[in-house]
Structure formats: C-alpha cells, structure tokens
Amino acid sequence: MGTATARKSGSTWRNWAGNVSATPARVVEAASVGEIQEAVRRAAEQGMKVKAVGTGHSFTAAAATDGVLIRPQALAGIQEIDRAAGTVKVAAGTVLKDLNQALAREGLSLTNMGDIMEQTVSGATGTGTHGTGRDSASIAAQIRALELVTADGRLLVCSEKENPEVFAAARIGIGALGVVTAITFAVEPLFFLTAREEPMRFEQVTDEFEQHVAENEHFEFYWFPHTGNCNTKRNNRSTGPAAPPGAVSAWVEDELLSNGLFQAVNSLGRAVPGAIPGIARIASRALSARTYTDIPYKVFTSPRRVRFVEMEYALPRERVVEALRELRAMVDRSDLRISFPVEVRTAPADDITLSTASGRDTAYIAVHMYRGTPYQAYFTAAERIFTAHGGRPHWGKVHTRDARYFAEVYPRFGEFTALRDRLDPDRLFGNDYLRRILGD
After folding, report:
1. How does pLDDT run across 371-402, given as a tens digit for each residue?
2. Cα 152 from chain centroid?
3. pLDDT tens across 253-292, in order?
4. How far, rounded to the nearest angstrom, does the alpha carbon of residue 240 sit from its chain's CA centroid?
5. How many C-beta atoms lie closer than 10 Å to residue 97's C-beta?
6. Is the confidence at residue 183, as pLDDT, over 60?
7. Residue 241: cis peptide before it, omega within 30 degrees of 0
8. Residue 352 near residue 142, CB atoms below 8 Å
9. Distance CA 98, CA 75 (A)
10. Residues 219-260: pLDDT tens digits?
11. 10 Å Cβ neighbour count for 264?
C-alpha cells in the first residue's frame, strides 16, 4: 500500500486566483485510499481538522485549513470501465483534462462539462461545477456512485442503491461530509458537437433567450459591460466529421483574444480604469461569427490563463433576463469599470440536495474581475440583485451568504445539515467557510 508522504507544512497554500491562502500544520500527499483513511484517523486522534484540496480553482476558502491538508493528486486515473452499464470509475485526484483525454482514447465522453478542465474530479463535483445545458446538467449530476472516507476513517460506498441518503448529498458535498476517494460517472460513446459562435445585440439575446435555450442543446452567451454587445455560443450534436477551427483562427480566438491580448487589455484597464469602456466597445466588436465541429471536450472547454476572481449565482430560469437587465442598468449608472464579460448559462433541475439547480430549472449569471483589481463594489452590487431574485451562489465562488440565507433558498438544507451531524458530529472536516455556510 505504501506510505503517504506527510510533511510539516509551514508553507502557505494559495488558490489559483490568489485570493485565498492558508498555512496547514501538515500536508499529506496521499496515493491510496488507505493513506487517506490513515491521515483522517491520525488527525482525529490529534484533535486536528482535515481538508482535501484539488488544484485550488475555487475562489472560496472551502479547502483552507490550519490542520491537515490532504492532496490526493497521486490518487489518479481511470480505475474501471463498464461499457455495458455506461460508467467509468475514476480516482478522486484525477484532473478533468486527463480524464477527458483518457475517455476520448477509449471512445467515450461525459455528456456535459464546464469550460475549464484544470480541476480534479472531486474538487469540481464537490463544489457544483457545471457547464450549460437544456437537458444535461452539472458534472455532479452525472455521478452514479462515489466512495467517501468519513470522520471515523471508514470507507462508505454510496449510490442510489447503497447509502442513498448520503449519495443524494455527497455528490455536491462541499468537503463537509468526508474525503471523496473515487467517483463513478455515467459516460456515453464519443460524439461530435458543432459549435456556432455569433455576436448578437444585448436586446436581441435577452428578448429571445427562452427561444435559444429551447432550440439548442447547449446555449450560453457573454455580455460585454459598457456595451450593448454579446457573443453567443450554441453547441449541438452532429454527425461529424471533425472540422476544428483552422490553426490561425484557433490561435487568434483562443490564444490572442482570450488569453494574450485579453491579459494586456486587463493590465491596461487595471492601470487606467477610464480606458475600459472604450476598450470594451472595440473588443466586443472585434468578434466574428465562426462554426466548428469536434469531440465534446474540445468544444466545451478552453484554456484560461488570465487570472480573475469570480462570483456566480444560480437564479430560477424565468428570472434571469430581468436580473441581467438590472445588472446592466446598475453598471451603466455607476462609475464601475468592468473589463471582463458577464457569462450566462443554463441547467435543468436536478435532485442533488445542495445543487444550485436542486429542484428548479436554473440559469446562471457569472461576474468576473481581473485578479488584483478591487472587486468588492461590483460584486456587492451584483449580489444585491441576485439575492433579490432568490439566487443561490456557486459553492466555489465569491459570495457573502450564510447558513440562515441558505436555509431559505434550499428546501432540503436541513436534510444536508442533519446528515453532516450524523457523519461528522465533531466537525473534523470543518473550517471557517463551512461554519459560515452550514452553521455550527
């Protein structure tokens, strides 16, 4: 089984965006389930808290601890493929990018995914990471079973048949119920998606929003603050063959505009905020329509090298257009200078206890600010709009809500906290963030 590498930390852990840091007393690099169980038992004996951390792509302190930090990245890879059942069992430390590539080699794919694939599967699902979909939901909604090391060091196998009440909650467990060690996903034979990207005016896309959602398997759009310009993206299944963007077009759109030039523009905007509206008008007009076809992960995901801080709220789908119009009006009458586009996506209702789409058809509004730029004024004003519409914040993104608020917007909130009381009565997996969002 081997021995986990445990070292006294003293070093500071930081998340990807650099807005959260922690100094754990001990870091455990675990390469097996047994090593994770041992780390949990030992921490409990010593009266220390335990958190597992992936690649740090959350903007919240969900994984921060001054106790024992478990890094499961060595616990990675596909463990089992069941083609008849259409499932794949994956170790928790597997990075989504590696999973997507490995599945493609096997002629398989997830049905839907988010637009970033740098996260571990357990980190992405545990915070409710999602893409956009009319019929297909978040990555966590594609889980068919999972394995969880609980506070007493046991390994709990959970599915609809086995420990179903834990399964209902632990697919999006926010690290509160234990350490996930393996996840079984539903997969399907590899397919093609045709993406159609097209600039559109704000008024048109908001007027026709429900129509676009109904007519496309995956619809999303970006609105550029200080302008009336949006970029829409429609992804639908096709028979193929693959027709990826040409090398030059791909480089211009994905590297120059989305990373290189975008980095320079944001740096300029941080230095000279007054320049942002003019830049936004030019940048949003520079986009052109394009259509391409490829396997799913090459269409759904794109590299994100410009670092930012993000807030995202899930709203009842019928409220999203109204909220977005309020957001635009707020930005227009303020002296805020926003250099990042606002992203709008959708998800169907699901049955996961604390999923942002739990029990209701959902649309998401995500607001971003360039790393190092003061974001509080913008996010506070946006959050006021989102909460007025009964919004639920993404568990891994910046928000100021607490347990009292969540008890109002999640009908099954008490179900989750009761399960937590049973599985982790001493709060071995607790931290300040969980205390705020789940209460004591």
Report:
1. 888 999 999 999 999 999 999 999 999 999 99
2. 29
3. 665 556 566 677 767 777 778 777 777 777 777 677 889 9
4. 29
5. 15
6. yes
7. yes
8. no
9. 13
10. 999 999 999 999 999 999 999 899 988 765 665 566 555 656
11. 13
* pTM of the entire predicted model: 0.93
What pLDDT score was predicted for residue 267?
73
DSSP state string for 44-108: HHTT--EEE--S---SSSTT--SSEEEE-TTS-SEEEEETTTTEEEEETT-BHHHHHHHHHHTTE
H/E segment holding residue 422? helix 413-423
Q: Is the pLDDT of residue 109 over 90?
A: yes
Phi, psi of 237 (to 5 degrees): -65, 145
The SS3 of residue 101 is helix
Q: Which amino acid is at 377?
A: A
What is the full DSSP assignment across 364-413? Answer: EEEEEEETTS--HHHHHHHHHHHHHTT-EE-TTS-----HHHHHHH-TTH
Residue type, 15: N
Helix (H, G, I), strand (E, B) or coil at 24: coil
The β-bridge relationship of strands 342-347 and 5-8 is unpaired
**Which tokens belong to 130?**
């999602």
Angle, CA 110 vertex, CA 106 and CA 112 arms, to 5°: 150
Residues in the chain: 440
**Structure tokens that stand for 262 in this block:** 């975008």
| Interhelix angle 276-286/261-271, nearest 10 degrees | 160
Q: Which bin fits 175, alpha (ψ -120 to 50), beta or left (φ > 0)?
A: left
Query: String of b and e for 381-392 (b: at least 16 CB within 10 Å)?
Result: bbbebbbebebb
Cis previous bond, 72, omega within 30: no
* Greatest CA separation for the chain: 62
Cα-Cα-Cα-Cα dihedral sign, residues 266, 271, 277, 282: negative
Residue 33 tokens, joined: 């389930």
Mean pLDDT, to the nearest integer, of 205-227? 97
> What single-letter DSSP state applies at residue 317?
G
Read off the pLDDT of each residue in 153-175 and give the average, rounded to a whole number.
Answer: 98
Ordered alpha helix ranges (H), 188-319 = 202-207, 209-215, 247-250, 261-271, 276-286, 296-300
Q: What is the reported pLDDT for 1?
A: 44
Rounded to the nearest integer, the mean pLDDT of the chain is 92
